[in-house]
Amino acid sequence: MEPLANGVLKADIKAAAKLMRYIEEEDTRAIDELKLLYGHTGHSHIIGITGLPGSGKSTLIDVMIEYFRSGKKTVGVIAVDPSSPFTGGSFLGDRIRMQKHSFDKDVFIKSLPTKGWRGGISKVTSRMITVMDAMGKDIIAVETAGVGQTEVDIKNLVHTTIVVLVGGLGDYIQIIKAGILEIADIFVINKADKNNTEDLESDLKNLFSLDTGSAKEGSGSDKSNAGSIKESAGWKPSIYLTEAANNKGVDRLIEGIFEHENYLRLTGKFSNYFRSKSNNDMKEIISDYLSNLLFEKLENDSLYKKLLDDLIHNDSDPYTAAEKILNQFLNFKK
Amino acid sequence: MEPLANGVLKADIKAAAKLMRYIEEEDTRAIDELKLLYGHTGHSHIIGITGLPGSGKSTLIDVMIEYFRSGKKTVGVIAVDPSSPFTGGSFLGDRIRMQKHSFDKDVFIKSLPTKGWRGGISKVTSRMITVMDAMGKDIIAVETAGVGQTEVDIKNLVHTTIVVLVGGLGDYIQIIKAGILEIADIFVINKADKNNTEDLESDLKNLFSLDTGSAKEGSGSDKSNAGSIKESAGWKPSIYLTEAANNKGVDRLIEGIFEHENYLRLTGKFSNYFRSKSNNDMKEIISDYLSNLLFEKLENDSLYKKLLDDLIHNDSDPYTAAEKILNQFLNFKK
User: Fold this and answer.
1) Which of A86, A165, B200, B227 is the most buried (most CB within 10 A)?
2) Entry pTM
3) How large is the C-alpha radius of gyration of chain B?
4) In this structure, are residues A47 and A112 in contact, taking their beta carbons and an 8 Å threshold?
5) pLDDT digits (tens, 9 = 90+) for B169-179
6) A with B: how many residue pairs have Cβ under 8 Å apart?
C-alpha cells in the first residue's frame, strides 16, 4: 500500500486527514508516516492565536484566512480550543460560517477537541504542524484557549504568538499579571467597536513599556519595530485594534504579522525555531520510547507490584520505589 | 538541619510554604522531603473545582471554606487558575476578601500561577496535594480554569470533581460538547440570581439523562443518588443552583459533596484513588528520572549533535534519531 505520506506531500486532504487521525489515536502507523514527512518540513510560518472564549479569535482567524488567500498563500488551521467554532464540537451557527473555507482546497482546518487525548497537547499539536508543513502550507494558524499551561507551551510551538483581548473585562488584567501576556509578539484588542479599549491599551503600554502612539484607533500599528530591528535583536510587541466581525483593522494586523516574520528571518530566529522544534520533537520521542519500553516490562513484574503495595500501605514512597525500579531494570552503557 | 517534613507533619505553615517553593522550582531538596511525607498521606478528601473565569468559582470556594470550617474541618486550597483571586496574580479587590482566611491557621491557600513552570501541571499539583495531605488537611480544594487539557488531567488528581457553570452563555454549550463536562461528579449553576438557568439546566439533564426535579430552585439537590448507591456502583452527577455571592444554595452543595464522599467510601473508590495516585506518582518519577539521566548524557554527546544537525538539514527524522540514541545508550537488563 502506498504510504499516506506520498499523498500528504501532494497536499492531498484525505491522506492528511487520515494521518491526523492516526496521530490523535496514537496509532503506531503515524510514526512511520511522520518519518517520511519530516525531511520536507521547515517551510511554514507558524502563528499562534490565543485568547479567552468570547474574544473573537475564531472570527479573527476567519478574516485573516481571507487576507492570506487573497495573497495566494495556502493556509492550515489547528484549533486546540474546545470552545472554538472551528472544532467539530461547536453547537453554534459560527461553524457554518467557517465552512465557507471548506470549498477552498488550499485551506485545511483541523480541530483538536481536548477530549480523550492520550498524548499531551504539545506533542499532538507539534505533529499536526509537521503534517501541515509537509503539505506545503505557507501559513499555519494554531488557535488555543488562552488559559493555563497550554498557552505557555504554545509559545514554543509557533514563530509568532498573537494574544487576542477585548476591552472592559477585569479578568484580562488578572491574566496579564499571571504571565499569559508575556508570550505575546503581537497584541490584538478585538471588538474595538463594542468595548472601551482605552484602559486595556494603557495597561498594556505600561506593562510592556510600549511607545505611546503605538496603537492608534483605526490604524493601530506600532511602526517602531522597523527601527528596533536595526538597533537590536529585540522585538517589542505591537498593539492592533480590530473589529474582526466588521473586517476592520485586520489588514494592518496582517502587515504586522509579516513584519514579525521579516524580523524573525533577518535575525535568524525563523530557522532557529526549526532547530528548537526538531530538538524538542526528538527529546519527546526519546522520553516516550523510554517510558513505554519500561512500563511494558513493569506491567507484570512482581517487584513493581510489591513496591506499589508498599506505597498504598504507607510503607514506602514513590521516589524510593522509582530508584529501586531503575536499579533493577536499567543499565546505561556509557 | 531538621527536615521541613517534620514541620509539615505538625501543620507548620512556614515549613509547608518553603517545601512548596522547592516543588515549584524543581529544587532537588523537594524529593527528600516528599519521601518523608508520603507514608503519612491518603487521608484528605480532594475536591476539584473547575469553571471558566467569571463563573464565580473563587467566591464559591470562599463560601465553601466557611462551611467546612464551621464543621471543624481543616482546609487546603490549591489555585491553579491564573485568573483566580486566590493567586498572587490578582490585581483586584477579591483577593483581599479571600485573605480573611489568612487569619485562620487551619486554612492553607497556595496559588500556582502557571507562569514559568518547569514541570507539568499534574506533577506539581500532585505534589502540592501530598504536602497538604501530610499537613493533615481534611479537605483539599483544587481550583482550575475549566478550559483545555488541564481539566481532563485534574479528574485523575481529585476524588470529587465539581464543574461550575453560569446560565445564559453559549460558550458553555460548546464546552459541554468538547467533553469538559463529562468529568463532573457534581454540577453547580452559579449566579442563579443573575442569569437564566433554565436552558443550561435542561441541556445538562438531557445530556446526562438526569432525573427531572433533580435541580429545584432554592434547594437544588439531586437526592436520587441515595437510592442509586444501593442499586449500582454508578454515580449520577447532581445539579446544584447557587448564588455564592449571597451565600445561597451552598449549604445544599456541601451536603452533596459529603454524599459523594460517602458514595466513594462505600464503594471502595476513596482508597482506590490513593492507589491510582501512588501508581501515577511512581510512573511519573520513573519517567522523569529516566529522561533526566539520558538527557544529561546527551548534553555533550557527539552522536546527539550529529543527529540534531541531520534533522535540521532535513536529512533525518526525530523518530529514527531517537531509535539510534536508545540503541547507543541503553541496555535493558531483563
Assistant:
1) A165
2) 0.73
3) 22
4) no
5) 655 554 555 55
6) 291
